[in-house]
Amino acid sequence: MPVSTKLNRRTFLRGVGAALALPSLECMLPQGARALAAASASGNPKRFLAVHVALGMYGPEFFPSQTGVGYELPKLLAPMAKVRDDFTVFSNLEHPTVMGGHRGIVGFLTGVNVFGFPGYDYKNTISLDQAYARHVGSETRFDSLQLATSGNHGSSSWDISWSAEGVAQASISHPRRAFQKLFADEEAGNATERQRAYARRVSLLDRVLDQAKSLDRRLGEADREKMDEYLTSVRTVERRIEKAEEWANIPKPKVDREAPRFNSNEDVDMFENAQIMYDLVALAFETDSTRSITLQVPSTGVVFNNIDGVNEGYHGVSHHGKEEGKIRQLLEIESRHTTQLAGFVERIGNTSENGERLLDSTTVLFGSGLGNASSHSNRKLPVLVAGGGFKTHGQHIDVGEKPPPLCDLYVSILQKCGVPIDQFATSAGTLNELV
Questions:
Q1: Which of the listed ranges 25-34, 266-275, 362-371 does the model predict with the highest average pLDDT?
Q2: Residue 314 parent element (H or E)
Q3: HSE of 398 in the Cβ direction (CA atoms, 13 Å)?
């Protein structure tokens, strides 16, 4: 059996045009069981992910009717049954001054009312993800990462990540570009050569294969098993991207049917892209490439051709006007959001880092700056928090009809992530229910 070698946390596998960061391995820790236990007890790096669904979630099937533990999961939370003890869902949280319907979602992570005053002369300020990135960004290759499931947003009204100067942080909506950002070796060769390599569909893992094999021989059994799982995950993401690109180049069949009201998005499948992005988020956290990520789910114009019972545009059914047929289609779409979220939570819950679950050091905020898309309301926002090591998970918390600002929750999240802060935007304190 090979003896585990001591590796630096910043070790990379390198090949022509590729640099693959390594996940956390036992051989990166001080030797000995006592040292390993001490390293684990000291706490792993804290990570933060914000997932924003631009069209909100249908309230009657998102908010449970009972509070506390043991509540009955409504339809939109039912896909999260296996991880129910790892998240808390909130009712009646909102930003008290944010308004503007769709335009108001730019304030979801900032709490700032940009469009609610005459003249529109207010500008945004730092968002929750960037506030955390400012605290820990220097410790990772990327201070933060902004992703989106599609590029169909067309205006700043879809942006959720903002600098302290009120500048929107552009999101990457193409899976291959996100993959390249995380894994392409920017120091090796020029941009033209890197593009040629990707055009030849040369696998990133093939480029680093020799180094991977050499390293594998020097690792202990547990580290070799973890490396195999990690490399398999990278390969799976590569194949999904290639499959999506192949379908993008195949002409779609012609049908004798009038086109739907909303044009199809340029992406082959928004949820296929979303799954790839979730996989990339997991890999980014596992390799400690960044500790602050946003994932935006825009919507205008998206039409789904592969969801049974859905034949209208996403934006159209979100403005359902209480029509049962539209609501039924909307619930089919929104159930995909929570299904994918549940899969991500379960995945990082099954990923070990220094003897602890990656989930316990990763806070996931899922929600929307739009409380009711049909009425363009920014009140009573759908919000849940998963992971992060919070001890009160497994509950539904109703903050009441006179709610504290949503930014109180943000202060609690930042504090849990180790940021010495007691005020954020419109906060009046912390959300004591989440500890």
A1: 362-371
A2: helix 314-318
A3: 11
Sign of CA dihedral 87, 89, 95, 100: positive
Global pTM value: 0.81
Q: Are strands 352-353 and 12-15 parallel, antiparallel or unpaired?
A: unpaired
Question: Helices 221-248 and 209-216: crossing angle, nearest 10°?
Answer: 160
- 288: tokens are 């400690």
* CA quadruple 54, 58, 61, 67: dihedral sign: positive
Nearest-angstrom CA–CA distance, 211 and 191: 23
The runs of H, that is alpha helices, within 249-310 are 270-286
Q: Which residues contact 224 (CB under 8 A, 6 or more apart)?
A: 216
pLDDT class for 337, splitting at 50, 70, 90?
A: very high
Residue 428 exposed, middle or buried by CB count within 10 Å (0-12, 13-18, 19+): exposed
* Phi, psi for residue 129 in degrees, rounded to 5: -65, -35
Supply the Cα-derived Rg of the chain in whole angstroms.
22
Cα–Cα distance measured from residue 215 to residue 209, given in angstroms and rounded to the nearest whole number: 10
46-183+290-435 CATH, one of 3.30.360, 3.30.310, 3.40.720, 3.40.50:
3.40.720
Query: How far, in Å, are 31, 197, 209, 219, 361 from residue 223 at the CA level?
Result: 14, 30, 17, 6, 20
Q: Tell how strand 12-15 and strand 145-148 pair up.
A: unpaired
CB-based contact 289:140 (threshold 8 Å):
yes
The SS3 call for residue 52 is strand
Compute the average pLDDT of residues 280-306. Answer: 86
